[in-house]
From TrEMBL:
InterPro entries: RNA_pol_I-specific_init_factor, TIF_Rrn11, TPR-like_helical_dom_sf
GO annotation, biological process: nucleolar large rRNA transcription by RNA polymerase I
Source domain of life: Eukaryota
CC terms in the record's Gene Ontology section: RNA polymerase I core factor complex
UniProt GO MF annotations: RNA polymerase I core promoter sequence-specific DNA binding; RNA polymerase I general transcription initiation factor activity; TBP-class protein binding
Sequence segments annotated as region (Disordered): 198-224
Protein name: Uncharacterized protein
Pfam families for this protein: Rrn11
Species, as recorded: Macrolepiota fuliginosa MF-IS2
Length: 224
């Protein structure tokens, strides 16, 4: 076997492959990347399926590639359930869990599952290292703010969710004081509260009695 091999992509092991098998794996990885760049996702899926079965290929480290292939490089919402399922499975492997959680929350938001997104954040945010991530606190704050506003378009707010939004945004600001997004939404909350002072607020218990949602709201305990 010739020791000289030219590969197009260097994302895998940069050392020269010592065996014919590893040469084939490197070639297949080149095929995968080329297919992705050419938007040929049919062949990309085939190459990915073969690669993840090779023990030499650390596919967990390339989870973003798998997610990209599932989405076929676009921004379609048609296959969001498959991507959510993929991310939940990947998060069990303790690799890049913070980044995966951000992706999961964004997908839940895109599909309009705001309460599920907030529940997911509340599951992880009390523990390290998620509690020190300002972006996750911003997501939780904005989701709480969204859910706090009445669906009928009135100015009545859920006071419990508003307090939760303030708490998360304040936490994000304490971690990253320079974040202008946090400051802007804290001001937004103050403005909303002033507008509803005369109209009054509703407590979360009253809110759950009015909302057509048979699933009780409860916090989950994350398994360690």
């Amino acid at each position: 076997m010739s020791p000289d091999h030219n590969f197009l992509f260097a994302s895998l092991d940069s050392k020269p492959p010592p065996t014919t098998r590893k040469v084939h794996i490197r070639r297949l990885y080149d095929v995968l990347e080329l297919c992705i760049q050419r938007n040929d996702f049919v062949r990309a899926k085939r190459a990915w399926t073969i690669l993840i079965r090779c023990k030499e290929f650390r596919w967990e480290e390339h989870w973003t590639t798998g997610l990209y292939i599932l989405n076929e490089g676009g921004a379609s919402t048609d296959n969001i359930p498959r991507r959510i399922e993929y991310l939940r499975a990947m998060m069990l492997r303790d690799i890049d869990k913070e980044t995966m959680l951000k992706e999961l929350i964004l997908l839940l938001i895109l599909s309009g599952q705001y309460q599920k997104a907030l529940d997911e954040l509340e599951l992880y945010l009390p523990s390290f290292p998620y509690q020190d991530n300002p972006v996750l606190h911003i997501y939780a704050g904005l989701l709480s703010l969204q859910l706090a506003q009445s669906k009928d378009g009135s100015q009545v707010l859920d006071s419990s969710l508003i307090r939760g939004a303030q708490s998360h945004l304040n936490q994000a600001q304490s971690i990253d004081p320079s974040n202008t997004i946090t400051q802007a939404f804290l001001q937004k909350i103050n403005t909303l509260q002033k507008r509803t002072d005369e109209n009054g607020t509703i407590d979360s218990e009253d809110e759950t009695m009015q909302v057509d949602d048979s699933t009780p709201k409860r916090k989950r305990i994350r398994k360690t």
